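re: the backbone from monday

yeah here it is again, tokenized this time
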């Protein structure tokens, strides 16, 4: 009787034993002195990251603190916390520096630049990758060379030409220059996107009777949409922050972008650094918000594009 009971018990526990053996075989071998409940720590890496974080956010924190101080307190303690939080500095700076008109002008210039660069770069990239153009390698070389030439070399002839064409001191004239400056890089980025798209999609659309324009707008543009969003974000932010071309080709105070409004305000109120800091934060706030909202798309566009293609 006892023997029968022992056989039944062994039979019932066999599946559990086999499962334990399978888990033990799948578990990686333990190293000597390694305990699975303790992960290896890297204090040096953590220290480096903390130092870099303070290095990146420290100047911005001082900038914020100075915008909430009085000029006398900035002189006494330029890097300390404000003893009295003067929130009215932002309203005063917004009004005295004419930041409202400057933000509106910058929004018009940045959005128009982003849209124009997307149209120009997407069409140029499509032509370089899908159309049978003579001398494709020469065009690629020309774009690479044009991106390496500094814009300062063309300021004098551009100024003369724009004055002759009536584009000087106009927002449209400045936007056209931005289109020419930012389109080469955008073209190379979108070209790398188009190179990753299989040509089977294009052949299927042609069999359905699609022409070049319909093929480009209905098939290719939706596939390279992440790249176009990245191009728009980069071109828009560059146009928003650009200073040299804006100060050269815009003179009317009602057409000044926000970067020139801040510069003019700083020249007029060079001593009142609290209002200058508040105006600088007002200028930087839209850029920070837009980047935080679109940073995932921005990173995806760069990683998916892969300029190595």
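seq for it, each position gets an aa:
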């Amino acid at each position: 009787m006892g023997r029968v009971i022992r056989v039944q018990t062994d039979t019932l526990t066999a599946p559990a034993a086999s499962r334990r053996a399978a888990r033990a075989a799948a578990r990686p071998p333990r190293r000597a002195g390694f305990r699975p409940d303790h992960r290896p720590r890297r204090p040096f890496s953590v220290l480096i990251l903390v130092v870099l974080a303070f290095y990146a956010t420290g100047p911005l924190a001082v900038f914020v603190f100075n915008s909430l101080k009085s000029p006398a307190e900035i002189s006494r303690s330029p890097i300390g916390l404000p003893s009295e939080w003067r929130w009215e500095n932002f309203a005063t700076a917004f009004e005295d520096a004419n930041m409202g008109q400057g933000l509106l002008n910058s929004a018009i210039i940045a959005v128009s630049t982003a849209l124009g660069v997307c149209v120009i770069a997407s069409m140029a990239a499509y032509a370089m990758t899908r159309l049978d153009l003579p001398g494709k390698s020469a065009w690629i070389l020309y774009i690479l060379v044009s991106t390496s030439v500094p814009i300062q070399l063309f300021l004098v002839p551009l100024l003369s030409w724009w004055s002759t064409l009536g584009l000087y001191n106009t927002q449209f004239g400045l936007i056209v220059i931005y289109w020419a400056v930012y389109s080469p890089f955008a073209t190379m980025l979108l070209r790398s996107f188009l190179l990753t798209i299989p040509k089977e999609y294009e052949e299927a659309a042609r069999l359905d009777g699609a022409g070049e324009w319909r093929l480009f707008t209905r098939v290719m543009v939706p596939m390279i949409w992440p790249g176009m969003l990245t191009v728009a974000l980069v071109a828009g932010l560059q146009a928003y922050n650009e200073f040299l071309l804006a100060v050269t080709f815009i003179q009317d105070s009602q057409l000044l972008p926000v970067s020139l409004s801040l510069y003019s305000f700083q020249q007029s109120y060079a001593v009142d650094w609290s209002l200058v800091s508040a105006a600088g934060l007002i200028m930087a706030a839209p850029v920070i918000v837009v980047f935080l909202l679109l940073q995932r798309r921005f990173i995806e566009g760069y990683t998916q594009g892969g300029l190595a293609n």
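Residues 1-14, 305-309 have pLDDT under 50 and may be disordered. The two ends are 77 Å apart (CA to CA).
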